[in-house]
Amino acid sequence: MKNALLILVIMTMHSIMSAQNYDESKIPPFTLPELLVNNSGHRITTVEGWENQRRGEILKIFSDQMYGKVPDFEYEITYDLRPVEAPELAGKATMEEVMISLSNANGKVDLTMLLILPANTQGNVPVFLGLNFRGNQATNTNPNITIAKNYIIGDDRPGYIDHRATEESRGTAASRWPLELILEKGYGLATIHCGDIDPDFDDGFENGVHALLDSRPVADEWGTIAAWAWGLSRAMDYFETDDRIDPNKVAVIGHSRLGKASLWAGANDQRFALVISNDSGCGGAALSRRRIGETVEAINTRFPHWFCRNFHQYNDREDELPIDQHMLIALMAPRPVYVASAQEDQWADPKGEFRSLYLASPVYQLFGLPVLQNQQQPEVDKPVDSGFQGYHVRSGGHDITRYDWDQYIKFADKHFQ
User: Fold this and answer.
1) CA distances from 50 to 53, 176, 267, 287, 361 (A)
2) Is 65 strand, coil or helix?
């Protein structure tokens, strides 16, 4: 029976993947939901109307129909800091592991955050915060960083066996975290293995932070993306206790599925002063109604645990969605937001990612802020930046690179330095 079910799932996924569209001419006509018309049909024309009414309406729809709401539950949070010996930093920075422990009567979950801060700075520092895929030890070659103990996404790279990290995994993702550049520009870096918060497989929500609840999520409650976003906010809780960090200058960043999480974290938690999405695609920055590259059906079939169960009713029915991703981007306003794509990453729909950012502009205009003027996607490797909306499409494929970080730091400098 299990083998038959597995074969059915594989056949279904193969059928969906084979049917994916990458041809702009085959995108069906669509109409986007109104960004600035409220549920009663009235147009929003003021900041007060946005902040006191429309923003909350949109956030609730995303929560109820897509990412899932976080149930109310009690927990205790504690922090334990462990210095990490890092002679390679030559005194220019400090490296620590912050154990963020969440506990209640149902159990305990430990989130290990690697925290690297520039030394000899005057006052508290701005920080980039992001989740990582393969463990903190993969982001840096330092031999003293604790190796991730939880489930690792994928199993096909050197240093990983049966979804667990080994010593050989150290530094294997260091190119995605250009520490020297980040520190040189005066920023700190904080990262948590996403598997510490919730493992990225369909486990029936028996592990990670879901296990702290008395019951598993119902149809409108959080999936894994929302759990990751919630975990990012727990890191923000810690930053507010550390006087070396400026909690008003924290940029949340994420790549791919973790870019979806950074956007949802930024939408829910306005303590994040700047939000960055790198190649986040469907369920992140890309418009769902374009139905190009990864689609709602493809994402829900391949990763049924990412979103709440209500979202599955929109498989191949994107026009029935009461929201689309330009509305998610608008939830960042008036805070600065940066969306990035990669030319060869058609699965993530670069044009749809840019279109979402551009179509969020009316909310930024309510605040009297400068917005992107050209509705056409910019040329490859030609970033555009209004000061509060930033975008680039980089040459190359699905990755986060030094080039990407160069743009994010330049963008952050305008607000944090």
Assistant:
1) 6, 36, 14, 21, 13
2) helix
Q: Helix 224-239 and helix 257-268: axis angle, to 10°? A: 60
For 48-416, the fitting CATH number among 3.40.50.1820, 3.90.550.10, 3.40.470.10, 3.30.565.10 is 3.40.50.1820
Let me know if 42 is a catalytic residue.
no
101: tokens are 């422990």
At 291, the amino acid letter reads R
List the end-to-end C-alpha distance of the chain, in Å, as a whole number. Answer: 60
- How far apart CA 45 and CA 168 sit, in angstroms, is 56
State pTM to two decimals: 0.96
Please report where in the chains the tokens 């006052």 appear, as a residue.
123
DSSP 129-162: EEEESS-GGGG---TTSPPP-S--S-S-STTEET
Amino acid, single-letter form, for residue 84: V
Q: How far is CA 394 from CA 86, 264, 378, in A?
A: 33, 23, 10
> Distance between CA atoms of 360 and 391, rounded to whole angstroms?
13
Annotated catalytic residue, options 163, 312, 398, 415: 398
- Write the DSSP string, 315-368: TT-GGG-S--HHHHHHTTTTS-EEEEEETT-GGG-HHHHHHHHHHTHHHHHHTT
Per residue in 10-42, is it b (16+ CB within 10 Å) or e — as a string? eeeeeebeeeeeeeeeebeeeebeebbebeeee
Helix (H, G, I), strand (E, B) or coil at 411: helix
DSSP run (H or E) holding 49: helix 47-49
Q: How many CA atoms lie within 13 A of 337 on its CB side?
A: 34
- For the chain, the domains span 48-416
- DSSP annotation of 379 reads P
**pLDDT value for 157:** 83
Per residue in 265-311, pLDDT tens?
999 999 999 999 999 999 999 999 999 999 999 999 999 999 999 99
φ/ψ of 239, rounded to 5, equals -55, -35
User: What is the H or E stretch that residue 402 is in?
Assistant: helix 402-416
Length of the chain: 417
CA angle 236, 237, 238 (to 5 degrees): 90
Based on the residue annotation, tell me whether 256 is a catalytic residue of this protein.
yes
Q: Which of 256, 262, 288, 361 is catalytic?
A: 256
Using alpha carbons, select from 192, 186, 194 the residue that is nearest to residue 249.
186
What are 80-101's pLDDT values in tens digits? Answer: 999 999 999 999 999 999 999 9
* Strand ranges for 64-198 from DSSP E: 76-83, 93-104, 107-118, 125-132, 160-161, 164-165, 188-193
